Amino acid sequence: MKKFGVIALAGLGLLLASCGDKKADNAATSQEQTVAEKSGDVFAVDTAASKVNWKAFHKGGFAPRWGTLNVSTGELTVAENNLASGEFVIDMKSLKVDPASVTEKDKKYTDLEGHLKNADFFDVEKFPTADFKITKVEELAAGATKAIEGANKTISGNLTLLGKTMNVTFPAKVDIMENSAAIKAMFTVNRADWGIKFGTDETDPAEWMISKDIEINIDVKADKK
Predict the structure, then answer these.
(1) What is the pTM of this model?
(2) Please, which of 28, 51, 62, 92 could form a disulfide with 169 given CB 3.0 to 4.6 Å?
(3) Cα-only R_g, the chain
(4) Separation of alpha carbons 89 and 94, rounded Å
(5) Whole-angstrom Cα distance, residue 105 to residue 123?
(6) CB atoms within 10 A of CB 25
(7) 217 with 23: CB under 8 angstroms?
(8) No. of H helices and E strands in the chain?
(9) pLDDT, tens digit, for every residue of 119-177?
(10) Where is the Lipid/polyisoprenoid-binding YceI-like domain (predicted)?
């Protein structure tokens, strides 16, 4: 096992992460649910304007690494001025590590990028895409934690990664306008729930230090067809 892979990684997932050490709250995770029915007007996701950023940590929050993923396609539907459904596909081969997140003189961000793309983590040759499909949209409960300023909804959706689908629930800011729609959210998931277990052997002190948490930040913009 390469030293860089052991020391520098916390894994990655999908999903504008800041460079601070504080993580967003964990998303509630459950088994795959029925996808919401499409209804109302259709809005095509603007893949150039949409972002999926990730951030990963060591236990204790130190030595964070962060980067980006591209959205390759997607759409939202809006009925009676409310988000009814939505889905988007993430290009896992587009995974990037921000060079600014790898500050150690003996580390290379390109090595981390390559490791994250191989079978230890996201195996992008075998699983070139991930996807998210909305299963439910509800009003955000009073007093709920808001990782994103202005959060007004609770979104649940099926996140498929490495061929495994789990349902995740998180607060989000949903904006609906006449000719556009947008979703912003930031939440944390446990990568082991999707079978990404490299660096989770707690009998090995070096691996034990790698957090299973991945912070995902989505900023999806869509235009009315």
Answers:
(1) 0.85
(2) 28
(3) 17
(4) 12
(5) 27
(6) 15
(7) no
(8) 3, 10
(9) 989 999 999 999 999 999 999 999 888 889 999 999 999 999 999 999 999 999 999 99
(10) 42-223
